[in-house]
Amino acid sequence: MNRAFNRKKDKSWMHTPEALAKHFIAYNAKFLGHTEVDQPKGTEVVRDAVRKLKFQKHIKKSEGQKIPKMELQISIYGVKILDPKSKEVQHNCQLHRISFCADDKTDKRIFTFICKDSESNKHLCYVFDSEKCAEEITLTIGQAFDLAYKKFLESGGKDVETRKQIGGLQKRIQDLEAENSELKKQLQVLEEQLMIAQVPPGNSISSKTPTDIFDMVPFSPMTPLVPLPASNGSAPPPPARPSEIRRDLFGAEPFDPFTCGAADFPPDIQSKLDEMQEGFKMGLTVEGTVFSLDPLEGHC
């Protein structure tokens, strides 16, 4: 295997600097996967990784699984591995983290590169299978390294430091978003616990006086009718009495047998009642016929 950046002097770069500096070069290749390696570079290191992933490839084929195709976007900023249909980024390998790149001279279809993972800080070897472009992809990554190094010298190293700071800030933002999401979950749990604590227990409801379907307390003959206190705790006002006594159709006051006594009748009515009582004692005359209340003297 050969390192991509140690190209031969008689071999020129394949792309213009503007294509890699302002845009990217895209390739399609089958992605065999990535595996962790012990060293950041070395021919034997990548050879072992290729052997391991090829063996996994044969196992997947025997199980009927297809090797996924990926799109590689190569620029001076790194190598992006995307889904060719959805364009979703599966892996983003920054160029300053790539430490080794090579194509297999014994198998023209295979090329690899080693990249240090930004989260775990482990060295991962990425292996691809391209039927026609394996060497070209390796050289394109080498050209991106060459242009990035020239830009680094021109900027005095400030550009790389800026990208590192941006990467660190992006990582910090991701951590803060994850922490914010966790705090929201904890807040939601506390709100649910507070709502449960505010609900009165079930046995407190049974102490309340039962009511009917009209929300009225049922009448009990054993319970005296006691006026309920007002809502503010003060004594209830006495029942209002009408300011004017109601009269019937003929202008007379209504008769109340529960409140009226013998002395309450007017003199003329009282005399009539006395006469009627006396008549019942002596006998009753109806249209000239006398009925006696005494059974011995009764006749028609």
Automatic annotation (TrEMBL):
- The residue ranges crossing the membrane are none
Return one Gene Ontology term, BP aspect. Answer: phagocytosis
Locations listed in the record: Cytoplasm
Q: What is its main location?
A: cytoplasm
Q: Where is the PID domain?
A: 25-155
For whether the record's keyword set contains Repeat, the answer is no
Record keywords, A-Z: Coiled coil, Cytoplasm, Phagocytosis
One term under GO cellular component: cytoplasm
Tell me yes or no: is Protein transport among this UniProt entry's keywords: no
Q: Write down the Pfam families for this protein, in alphabetical order.
A: PID
Positions in coiled-coil regions: 166-193
Protein family membership: Belongs to the ced-6 family.
User: What PANTHER family does the record tag this protein with?
Assistant: PHOSPHOTYROSINE INTERACTION DOMAIN-CONTAINING FAMILY MEMBER (PTHR11232), PTB DOMAIN-CONTAINING ENGULFMENT ADAPTER PROTEIN 1-RELATED (PTHR11232:SF70)
Q: What is this protein called?
A: PTB domain-containing engulfment adapter protein 1
Organism, as annotated? Cyprinus carpio
Instruction: Give the encoding gene's name.
Output: LOC109090552
